[in-house]
Design goal:
The protein is α+β, with helices and mostly antiparallel strands. It has helices at 8-16, 28-42, 77-83, 86-96, 181-187; strands at residues 18-20, 67-70, 101-111, 124-127, 142-148, 159-162, 198-200, 208-212, 217-219, 228-237, 262-264. It contains five helices and eleven strands. α2 crosses α3 (77-83). The two termini are 30 Å apart.
Length: 271
């Protein structure tokens, strides 16, 4: 039997732990509608009548605070259309070889631009997503599609991935909310022979990056003069299972397609 040849995109994802779409994956009209939906959620307006899940950020909070809203797709139809777009599912399946790809959690992220004095725009500390995803059994295939809605330039505080860190396992020292990223990086003890190589994820509006749940990533302050808008779309394949088969914590909605749509293949797989 012939061994199937992996696509260049899949080889890069498996070796480096991330992949950037070479061109926008999402239609710009959908991106524009999702931006309007994002602003509506920030004002506390929920088109569907269903609010997001309790979140780090709430309407009325400091506008210079990182805006992070959990499960925004249940509150706005344009956001749901964006996070469930079939282009994301198709590329996710190519990168992983999956037969099924499901959205299992979503976060709206809006990073404000720094003030004229350079202050007021937060960083996102170096971290591995897996350290926050303990509700999934060891070995589950979990990853993230990160969709940019505005230009993600060098000045906008883009994400940075650490090349090959998907093969390091889960390490100590990661912290999403860490602000002193340099001292934080010094506390992360790398495996013997590993090299810390940062790759900047510059994306156009509608561009999407994908990263493995062990891939270290973080981002610096936004100095672009405009908010950096994005959605972190957390995905799983049929090769995943909630811990003990329980629907709890971040896995509590996986049987509800209104929250967790299957965006490639068919639903109903075990787990």
């Amino acid at each position: 039997m012939a061994i199937p040849t992996l696509s260049p995109a899949r080889r890069q994802y498996e070796m480096e732990g991330f992949y950037l779409s070479p061109k926008p994956l999402l239609p710009l009209d959908l991106v524009e509608r999702a931006i309007l939906g994002m602003d509506a959620l920030r004002r506390g307006e929920y088109e569907t009548g269903v609010p997001p899940q309790p979140s780090f950020w709430k309407p009325g909070d400091d506008p210079q605070k990182l805006c992070k809203i959990e499960m925004p797709q249940v509150a706005n139809r344009s956001i749901r259309d964006l996070v469930s777009h079939p282009n994301i599912g198709k590329l996710a399946a190519e990168l992983t070889g999956a037969e099924m790809v499901q959205v299992w959690w979503v976060q709206l992220l809006m990073k404000p631009s720094a003030a004229h004095d350079g202050k007021g725009s937060p960083s996102v500390g170096w971290h591995q997503d897996r350290q926050y995803w303990k509700v999934w059994e060891e070995g589950s295939e979990l990853f993230t599609a990160w969709a940019g809605l505005t230009p993600v330039t060098e000045e906008a505080g883009p994400m940075k991935f650490i090349r090959g860190s998907n093969r390091w396992g889960l390490l100590e020292g990661g912290d999403f909310y860490g602000q002193d990223t340099e001292s934080q990086r010094q506390r992360i003890r790398l495996p013997e022979g590993a090299v810390w190589e940062e790759v900047t994820a510059v994306l156009p509006p509608g561009g999407v990056s994908f990263h493995h749940h062990h891939t270290f990533h973080g981002s610096g302050p936004n100095h672009s003069g405009r908010p950096r808008r994005s959605f972190a779309i957390h995905l799983r394949t049929e090769r995943s299972r909630p811990l003990g088969g329980q629907r709890q914590g971040l896995a509590r909605f996986i049987d509800d397609p209104a929250y967790c749509p299957v965006i490639f293949g068919k639903g109903g797989e075990p787990g």
